[in-house]
Amino acid sequence: MEIIVLIPRLVFITITLVVFAFSLLTFSRYKTKKTLLLTLGFGLFFVHGLISIPEIFNQEYNFLFRDNIHLLIDAVALLLILLGVLQDQK
Amino acid sequence: MMFKDEILVNERRGKIYACIKRNPGLHLRQIQRILNIPLASLQYHLNYMSRRKIIFEEKSESYTRYYCEVLEPKDNKILSVLRQKRLREILLLVLINKKVKSQTIVKTLNLSPSTISFYLNHLVKNNILERTKVGYENIYTLKEEDRIEKILIAYQPSFMDKMVDKWASTWLETSLVKDQTNQENTEPDKR
Q1: pTM of the full predicted structure?
Q2: Which of B114, B164, B171 is opposite residue A88, by nearest beta carbon?
Q3: Could you read off the pLDDT of A4-24 as tens digits, one per residue?
Q4: CATH, domain B4-70, list 1.10.10.10, 3.50.50.60, 3.90.1640.10, 1.10.3720.10
Q5: Distance between CA atoms of A18 and A31, rounded to whole angstroms?
């Protein structure tokens, strides 16, 4: 894979890791449904980044994850974050 | 090996120990101002007691603070709650006023009632605040004032704490718009 594709991808995965870590720490402190939904959402983005790492090194792996699957994972993550935002504090 | 009592037989050392015990978390200059002991002598006695684990030092960026006891496991639980800025602000408010109504906290911190209620419930659940119902209102008091005061002094927010604080308040206070509108509608007309 070309370096121009590789570096941004690794940067994005690192960003999702950082965001997920903050979210997880917030959940560990408050333990509410709202923080749980947000953590799951950001966690899904991070996992999505993680499972696409082998793709960087092996192009054949790409066949396992079609575009629709990627879109579905992102949609579910966004939905979880939306539910988290809309969730009232209890 | 000398015992604690033997070490504290020295009058000056005993005074320093008593002063730290009364006011945990004092730093060198503060102890010097209270006891009016020459700085070099004070520094010597503090180091002497610190080496023998009679007192404990906690080094922060600008000060070294002194304590008679290290934090107990129970304190760590309180400390983990105090890591959160909003909760610290509420605790300081209760600490200053002794008894506080939730409405006072809402007005002082300028947050929505539901957000304040969430933070207060969290503090009550963690046995830090005590809720007493008086008429229609809830009054909040600190459960262990001395202990919380001591931990508040000892606490130094780390970079990570600040980041998580900002993150938490961004997401936990997102339902503000609806709540503030409700609050404005329910507030009596002041005009």
Answers
A1: 0.57
A2: B114
A3: 778 888 899 999 999 999 999
A4: 1.10.10.10
A5: 19
| Nearest chain B CA: its distance from A23 CA (Å) | 7
Instruction: Give the residues across from B84 on adjacent strands.
Output: none
Token pair of B107, please?
């007005």
Task: State in words which class domain B71-172 has.
Answer: mainly alpha
Residue B147 to chain A, least CA–CA distance (Å): 21
Strand duo B64-67 + B26-27: pairing? antiparallel
Interface confidence: ipTM more than 0.90 = no
Q: Which residue type sits at A55?
A: E
Identify the bridge partners of residue B101 per DSSP, sorted by sequence position.
Answer: B139
Q: Which residues pair with B66 in a beta bridge?
A: B26, B57
What does DSSP assign to residue B71?
P
Does any CB of chain B come closer than 8 Å to the CB of residue A26?
A: yes
Closest Cβ opposite residue B114 in set A29, A85, A89:
A89
